[in-house]
Amino acid sequence: MRSVRARAALGATLVVAVALTVAGLAVLLVLRGNLTDRAGLEAEVAAREVAGQLALGATYAELELGDEDTHPVQVTDEQGSVVAVSKDLEAISGTGTAQVVPVPSAPVPSPGDDDDDDDDDGGGSEPARGEVSSDPPDFANGTATVDGETADYRFAAVESTTEQDVTLTVRAGAPLAAEQEAVDTVRTSMLTGLPLMLLVVAGVTWLVTRRALRPVEDIRQEMAAITASEDLSRRVPEPDSRDEIARLARTTNETLTVLEASVDRQRRFVADASHELRSPIASLRTQLEVGQAHPELLDVPGAVADTVRLQALAADLLLLARLDAGERPGRTAVDVGALVREEVSQRTADRIPPEVSVVGRGSLEVAGSRGQLARVIGNLLDNAQRHAERSIAVSVREDRGGVLVEVADDGSGVPGAERDRIFERFVRLDDARSRDDGGAGLGLAIARDVASRHGGTLTVAEAPGGGALFTLRLPSRPAPGGEPAAG
Fold first, then answer.
1. Which end of the chain is more exposed for a tag (fewer CB within 10 A), N or C?
2. How many of the other CB atoms lie within 10 Å of CB of 63?
3. What is the pTM for the complete model shown?
4. How far apart are the C-alpha atoms of 164 and 167, rounded to whole Å?
5. Are residues 256 and 285 in the same domain?
6. In 346-476, which residue ranges form alpha helices assigned H by DSSP?
7. pLDDT digit string (tens) for 224-280?
8. Do residues 22 and 143 both lie within one domain?
9. Cα(484)–Cα(400) distance, rounded to whole angstroms?
């Protein structure tokens, strides 16, 4: 069963069926118990009435057995022999003996008779009056046939002691026809109403579930259309409700927005990378073809320069691909001050030697990838070399639990409206600048991505000398005890 609506309807129907069945059985048991107790009370009243007559000295023949049709009575002595029964009682069961004909028995002595013990005592006193047992009666279910009609009864057994100290057991019954009729009526009603109730529950659940899941089907259809058309600009419909389905639709649209931006970014990246690679490859091919035809005209330095530029561009593209794939930097301790000094010392061919200032007590350590952080410092220095006129200043210092690296130049600076755009990939603000001098526009994008993956930031502002001031902020490496490392 693949339909959610069908599963929901079936589940709700089963739950209701179980609940109604349990409730119905409980009602039947309670109803039967109450009616049985009521019949037992009637039987007890009838039995105590007859027992009271025997206790007062009534003989078996003098017993008034009440309504014999509705309350059959059977009286037995201590030996279990039947001494009195209701008129027209033809058969009985459930009372311990099926006998319905009284056995011959000596007449019960009259209250005025004296025995030998009384004469010997010479008192002439009457014997003590009998009594009815106050103990709860014993109950049993059975049948009785009265005047040719057999029915079920609830029998109550009550003991009575006569004035002659004879213990008799009176069993009187009350009919269970009313109990059986009521239970049968309720059971029939339940068996008739239960299927109808289950059909109603299944139908209502089906309709409600269908209405509730309609937005889900709309979302599915729209997602199928997006998949078929590959148009990531489309969005799934968002219902007006504030339930889980509405949140699912909003989350789906947010995912589509991020996916669209990612795909567009990837497409632009591929297009820009192809465009950037085409130029050095074409230049290198041209020089090699000219050199093949005219060896004396081969520009070896130019070919080497194009090869180096092509290699650097390939390295940048590879690093961006790893960053986009979610590569996490290592957690190696990196001394930023020493790293900056090392990077500056290796740039012997720079047009403008940078001035380095490291302020701090001890090392300025961060946790991360030494190679990637070196790439950030190198890219910032390359950018400063391209735009500086006379001076470049690099400073490293502590700052509020972090390490701050600032690279300033005295060039033309970055316009305020372009300070975020320069960190985009393949963006070069000076369109007239030659590709050989300006690079591919990936350095600052790589620098910001690396800084972000190290938990830091990279921003640009106006330098005090009027040029650009790039600020790299990295969190300090936590010491083994949990405190930031001393700077």
1. N
2. 19
3. 0.51
4. 9
5. yes
6. 370-387, 435-438, 443-453
7. 998 898 888 888 888 887 888 888 999 999 999 988 888 887 787 777 777 777 777
8. yes
9. 10
